[in-house]
Design goal:
Order of helices and strands: HEEEEEHHHHHHHHHHHHHH
Radius of gyration: 45 Å
Strand order of the largest sheet: 3-4-5
Number of domains: 3
Number of helices: 15
Low-confidence stretches: 1-46
Helix content: 55-70%
Distance between the termini: 92 Å
Mean pLDDT: 85
Shape: elongated
Oligomer: single chain
Structural class: mainly alpha
């Protein structure tokens, strides 16, 4: 075996490398070179998040403090409003993804991610890989089982092959060299084991991304211009208002470092834009308030045509204004559509109620004797409930009256919506009949317990009669807006 194969061992100590070499020689393993070059120069500390750039099609480069995110057809990122030192003043913004030159943006982002990785974790990750490879080699030297040695070699070979893909292609050339030597080792193991067929696993090379020189930090003037560019791209009024105000604040904060003429001209333009945004905001807010009030009043009267007229008026007004607030207008339309649906539902409910009123009138006519009998029985039943009468001569007529009323009521066929009312009236009449009979028995026998039972029956009759009356009164009221 070539005694110089360990001359390039970097991160392993010389003593450990010598031990590995002796074990490899003792086991007659083929030449395996661990390319573990020193990486101390790449351990520079990187502080803070990576600064990315979003390049627009017109060449403008927007600063993203940390990673940006594509959400649907939008790009969301944190844009610094001032210096990047210390704790920067950030504004969360979003712009259309179609405004971004993604080819240039992705190349810059890949380069920044790679450089950030190299400056932070790359060296330690590579050290971990080389240590893992060295440990695998030592494990191979300790076993005399050819199959086990082959399994260990193939396992570490898979780990090494996957490493560049998951680590931005860092040290890709060194990893390829390790792979070549591991492949030679695996081939030797297979040959010594008598294998006649070899499987060759090809791994596409992963190279680090092309390095793009990082752009310098934005000047105060650059930062303000970027804020205004994002405001121009924004299709949300609230975001534009926030950005214009942020630009005015930065113009004041950075006044000493800005070109005076540019600062004055920019402030006038931004204040004018902000004033326009606020004016449209008030106009659309007033339109929403008045139209919603009008539509709500019309919907409460089931005036479907009236609500539709409000919708048409709002659409015309928005068109006259040039569709200045699509987000606010969309929300307003949604609210007015809800009012229109409520008016349509109420109109349907009232039409159905009109039909039900005819059935209710017929039922009132058919159940009239029962209702009258229960009305006449109210005072005597209250006396029975209070264990205070009525006069004994009134009990027998009360019982007969309720018995006759009950017989008539059971012959009445109520409409579906009045079945509950029918059941309440039948129960009230039966309890009233029972209360009169029990009171008469208690009066004749002087049985206080029977009088109390009569009181309970009378209370139930009065309660059910009241509930039936309340239900019929509710059915008599026209439906209201829900």
């Amino acid at each position: 075996m070539d005694s110089g194969v360990f001359s390039r061992v970097g991160s392993l100590s010389r003593a450990r490398a010598a031990r590995v070499r002796r074990r490899l020689v003792a086991c007659s393993l083929p030449t395996v070179v661990l390319v573990l070059m020193g990486t101390a120069g790449l351990r520079a500390a990187a502080s803070g998040p990576t600064i990315f750039r979003l390049f627009l099609h017109d060449g403008t480069a927007l600063v993203s403090y940390g990673e940006y995110a594509r959400v649907g057809d939008r790009v969301v990122f944190s844009m610094p409003l001032g210096p990047l030192t210390g704790v920067p003043d950030l504004q969360l913004v979003n712009i259309p993804a179609t405004a971004v030159d993604w080819g240039r943006t992705d190349r810059y982002a890949d380069s920044m991610r790679y450089e950030h990785y190299v400056a932070t974790r790359a060296a330690s990750d590579y050290d971990a890989l080389t240590s893992q490879v060295a440990s695998a080699i030592e494990a191979m030297t300790k076993t005399t089982d050819p199959a086990e040695r082959l399994k260990l070699a193939e396992s570490i070979r898979g780990t090494v092959a996957d490493w560049p893909r998951d680590h931005f292609g860092y040290r890709a050339a060194n990893v390829r060299e390790i792979l070549e030597l591991l492949d030679q080792t695996i081939a030797g193991f297979r040959a010594s084991s008598g294998a006649q067929q070899f499987k060759l696993s090809l791994v596409a090379g992963i190279a680090p991304p092309p390095i793009v020189p990082p752009l310098p930090p934005p000047t105060p003037k650059d930062a303000i211009e970027q804020v205004l560019e994002v405001a121009r791209l924004s299709d949300t009024a609230a975001d534009r208002t926030t950005l214009y105000q942020a630009a005015i604040d930065r113009l004041s904060a950075e006044a000493a470092s800005l070109p005076p003429a540019w600062a004055r001209r920019t402030r006038r333009a931004v204040e004018s834009s902000l004033s326009t945004e606020l004016r449209w905001q008030r106009d659309y807010r007033d339109l929403a308030r008045t139209s919603i009030e009008d539509a709500s009043a019309r919907a409460a009267h089931a005036d479907v045509r009236g609500v539709e007229a409000v919708l048409d008026r709002v659409r015309r007004r928005d068109a006259q204004w040039g569709h200045r607030r699509p987000d606010a207008f969309s929300a307003l339309l949604e609210t007015l559509q809800d009012r229109l649906e409520a008016a349509q539902t109420l109109r349907l409910d009232r039409d159905r109620w009109e039909l039900e009123q005819q059935a209710l009138k017929r039922y009132r006519h058919q159940a009239g004797p029962v209702l009258e009998a229960l009305d006449r029985a109210t005072r005597p039943l209250e006396a029975i409930k209070a264990l205070a009468g009525p006069d004994v001569t009134a009990l027998d007529p009360l019982q007969r009256s309720l018995t006759v009323a009950l017989r008539r009521l059971v012959l009445v066929e109520p409409p579906p919506e009045l079945k509950d009312v029918q059941a309440l009236l039948v129960s009230a009449a039966r309890l009233g009949e029972q209360a009169a009979a029990l009171r008469l028995r208690a009066t004749m026998s002087g049985d206080l317990e029977a009088a109390r039972n009569a009181s309970s029956a009378a209370a139930g009759a009065l309660m059910l009669r009241q509930r039936a009356q309340q239900t019929m009164e509710a059915l008599s009221q026209p439906p209201r807006l829900r």
